[in-house]
Amino acid sequence: xxxxxxxxxxxxxxxxxxxxxxxxxxxxxxxxxxxxxxxxxxxxxxxxxxxxxxxxxxxxxxxxxxxxxxxxxxxxxxxxxxxxxxxxxxxxxxxxxxxxxxxxxxxxxxxxxxxxxxxxxxxxxxxxxxxxxxxxxxxxxxxxxxxxxxxxxxxxxxxxxxxxxxxxxxxxxxxxxxxxxxxxxxxxxxxxxxxxxxxxxxxxxxxxxxxxxxxxxxxxxxxxxxxxxxxxxxxxxxxxxxxxxxxxxxxxxxxxxxxxxxxxxxxxxxxxxxxxxxxxxxxxxxxxxxxxxxxxxxxxxxxxxxxxxxxxxxxxxxxxxxxxxxxxxxxxxxxxxxxxx
Length: 341
What we know:
Layout: E1 16-20, E2 23-28, E3 33-35, E4 40-46, E5 48-49, E6 52-58, E7 67-68, E8 71-73, H1 80-92, E9 94-109, E10 113-127, E11 135-142, H2 152-178, H3 194-202, H4 204-215, H5 229-241, H6 243-247, H7 253-269, H8 274-294, H9 301-339
Parallel strand pairs: 4-10
Antiparallel strand pairs: 1-2, 2-3, 4-8, 5-6, 6-7, 6-11, 9-10
Helix pairs in contact: 2-9, 4-5, 4-8, 7-9, 8-9
C-alpha cells in the first residue's frame, strides 16, 4: 500500500485522525480538512484479432515479467475510455476505438491500495504492434493458450468477454460452415443445428409414423392409400433416422442422387403420379420441421439461429431430393417408351 500520510499537503501540519460519520479519516486540525483515500481507477483494453487476445508483458512492478491486458491508471482530466485508449497506445503501440464496455471490478494492490479496474473492448484502428516503455513484450495469444495473467481483474474481464462472445462466435462459425454445405466430409457436431438433428434422428419412428398417416390420407397423395404401408414407412424411416448423415455430407451428392433417383423410378413403375412423389417428399420435410418447432427452442438468440439454420439445411437437402426424384421419374417415362411394342 502507499506510504502513510504524516503531514498535511496544504500547510505541512502533522496529520491526525478524526471520525467523519462512521469513517476514521486523516485530518488536519490547522486546515480543518479531511483527507479521502479513494480507490484508484485503472483502465484496461481487450483487443482481439482473429480471435486472439492482445497482451503485454509487464516491465515494471507490480507483477513485473507477467502478462496482462494493456492497463494503467486514469489521469486527471481524461475520461476512463480515453485512459484505456491512451494505455493501449503507450503499452502496445496501436491506436484503438472503444467498441463496448466489458466489466468493472474491485481489486487490492499491496503497492497502491484499493483499485477499480474498468475494462473495455477496443478495435485496433491504426499503428503497429510495438512494446512501449512499460512493456517488455507484446503479442496476440489464442484464448486456448493464454499465459497466466498478472491481475485477477484481467482474468475476470476476459472470462466475461468470452461469455459474451461465445454465442456470437458459435453462430458465425456455424453460418460460415453452412455456406459450404454442398461440400462433403463435414463431421457431425460442426453445425449448431446438429443438436436438433440429433433429436430428429432419435425420434425418427415417431416422425415417420406421423408422415405415413398424413401421406396415406392426404388429398395430394391419393395413390399412397393403396400402397404397402410397411415398405412406405421403412423407406421414410431410413431417411429420417439417418437425417444427420444426409445433411452433413456423410452421404455425398451422388448418394442423394442415387437414392432419390431410385425413389422416382420406382414410384413411376408403381404408377404414382409425379406430383404425388414430390408431395410425399414435401410432407417429409413438413413433419421434420414441425417436430423441430415443437421442441420450443426459442428462448435465446442462439436457439432461434439454430432452428433457422436447420430450416435452411433442410431446404437445400429436400430441393435436391425433389430434383433427383423427378429425374428418376422422367427416366421411368423413357424406360416405358423404350419397352413399347
